[in-house]
Every structure is written in C-alpha cells, then in structure tokens.
Design brief:
By secondary structure, the chain is mainly beta. It has one domain. Helix content is 5%, strand content 47%. It contains 2 helices and 22 strands. The strands form 2 sheets. The protein has a 20-stranded mixed beta sheet that branches. The longest helix has 8 residues, at 78-85. The radius of gyration is 22 Å and the shape is globular. The chain starts with 6 loop residues before the first strand and ends with a strand.
C-alpha cells in the first residue's frame, strides 16, 4: 500500500509545450497534498434499443487537472508564481536584494513527476504540458499561510523507471511563513483587526481539442483576474463606506518568516464588491469585504509581489 509519507513531487520547466526536457534536472517541491491526475471525457452511445440498455461507453479526450497544496515559504513557490502571473521576477532598482513580479503575458509550462517510492510496478507518474491556472492564498489568524495552485495539463504516463538521465535538486529549506509576523495595510493604513485575507488569481486556461487527437493542443488563455476578501472585526464603518460609495482603495500585506525573508503583496487599485456585517449570534461581529483588483496605470499591474 502506497503511503503519503513516501511520496515526492518534482517540477521542471518545459522549453516546448508538452515535451519533458532531455536529461531533466528535477526540482523537488514542498507540498502538503496534491490531487493532480488524469481526467477523461466519457462518451456514451445514444443508440435507442428495445432492451433499454446502454450499447457502448468509450473514453474520450484526456487532460491533466488537479491542485498542489502547500504552505508558503520563501523561494519555494517562485517559479509557479511566475507562471500564474505570466510575469518575470526582476530586480527592483535601486532597492537592494529586492525583486518584483507583476502580471504579464508570458506563458510557461512544466513537466511534473510524482514518485510513489513504496509502490511496486510503475511508481513514476509523469505529467506533461502542465500550466498553472489559478492561485488561492489564505492568510488567517493563528495559522501558517497556505497556498493552493490549480493546474491543467496535456497528458499523463506511468513508468517503472524515471525519465532518462534524470537528476534531482533538493527542495528549499526556508521556514514556513505564519500570520504572526505579517503586516496588513488597507488604504495605506495598518489595520490590526483583520481575521483573514484571501487572495485568488485565475488565468481561465481551457483545453482545445481537435479531430484526430485525444490530447489538447496548447490550451486557450483568458484574462488574468485577481479577487479576494478581507474579513475584519466590525469596529468602524470606514471599510463599509468604501463599498457603499464605490471608492477605490489599495491593499498591502507583508508576509515575513522568522529570519526576515519577506514577500510584500500589493494590490494598488481594488474595488470592494460587497460588505455586510451579518449577526449570527451573541459573539463578535465580523465584516466580510470581497474585492476585485483592477489595473493601475501607475504600477502598470493589478498586483505586485516584492521579495526581499
């Protein structure tokens, strides 16, 4: 029986979509779980029969779907963040030891290798043409910061042996980032009553199937959307008024590990799309404020990450 304690997941960028590089140097990725796997469309015969039975069921188009779940730590997710954003980490001059990532239009795909080390027969699961389609980041009180990356890919193969001439780079060893050392600012002002911030990004990647092939050609991609929600104890109407008055704001949160490595998430122009202080009992009232991030001409992006 395969055990999750003996499972490993590796990634490598592809030069050509759907093609694993020769002599691949795999990067081990830290995860808390994954649902990555092969999906198939099922084709069922519509033939009308006098015995009321289904005449045939066939497998149709193939695709790879699923998620990688994990905890945020410095440099662990940087390659996937680039792929989700469509941007490139670039030095932020004249700042020292600081890089920036903005939204862009560059597409990246990966080959992903899963190794069930205690599984006999075919322990290597290889996924090709895998693109990062979505991101869900959660910063909650008294918790580690979690991230979930949604993936969509071309195909999967099983093998008794690893890809030819494979080598393996060790996973990062940086500390997991928690919610105790971060700072959250709304409209430029630090707010200390936030109980949770969630951030979601999506690329709208969809497979494209053609006659003669069960696997997709390079999928289509849509707009890069960034949404989220700020949940805070209801101590003033300032946030609520921004929703009522349709006032643009900005949101910033710094996530720092115990040795000082830092990610600064900055959304320069958000609009709140809701706000309602529901009462469900006698306890504290919280205000949930969903938002959408819009393009900001000054920052030239709807979201910016700085790492330092």
């Amino acid at each position: 029986m395969a055990s999750g304690a003996l499972h490993a997941l590796y990634l490598i960028p592809e030069t050509s979509y759907g093609v694993t590089p020769s002599t691949p140097a795999w990067n081990k990725h830290r995860i808390t779980g994954t649902t990555l796997g092969l999906s198939k469309n099922i084709l069922q015969s519509e033939e009308v029969r006098d015995d009321r039975q289904i005449g045939d069921t066939r497998h149709g188009s193939r695709s790879v779907t699923g998620e990688i779940q994990g905890e945020l730590s410095y440099e662990t997710w940087d390659a996937l963040l680039e792929a989700i954003f469509g941007g490139t980490w670039e030095a932020d001059t004249p700042a020292v030891d600081t890089d920036q990532l903005k939204a862009g239009v560059t597409r990246r795909s990966f080959s992903v290798l899963r190794n069930f080390t205690d599984l006999t027969g075919k322990p290597y699961f290889l996924y090709t043409g895998v693109e990062a389609n979505s991101l869900a980041l959660t910063v909650a009180a008294d918790s580690n910061v979690t991230c979930v990356v949604g993936l969509i890919g071309k195909d999967q193969t099983l093998s008794a042996t690893e890809p030819t001439d494979s080598t393996y780079n060790a996973a990062t060893t940086t500390k997991v980032i928690d919610s105790f050392t971060g700072v959250i600012k709304e409209g430029g002002t630090t707010i200390g009553v936030v109980t949770e911030v969630t951030l979601s990004a999506a690329n709208g990647i969809e497979p494209r199937y053609v006659v003669g092939s069960k696997t997709t050609i390079r999928p289509s991609i849509s707009r890069f959307t960034v949404t989220g929600q700020v949940t805070a104890f209801f101590e003033s109407v300032s946030l609520l008024e921004k929703f009522i008055d349709e006032t643009d704001s900005d949101l910033e949160f710094n996530l720092t590990d115990v040795v000082g490595n830092n990610y600064r998430f900055f959304l320069p122009r958000i609009v709140y799309t809701g706000g309602q202080p529901d009462v469900t009992g006698e306890g504290p009232i919280t205000l949930a404020m969903p938002f959408t991030a819009n393009y900001d001409a000054t920052s030239e992006t709807n979201i910016l990450i700085e790492r330092s």
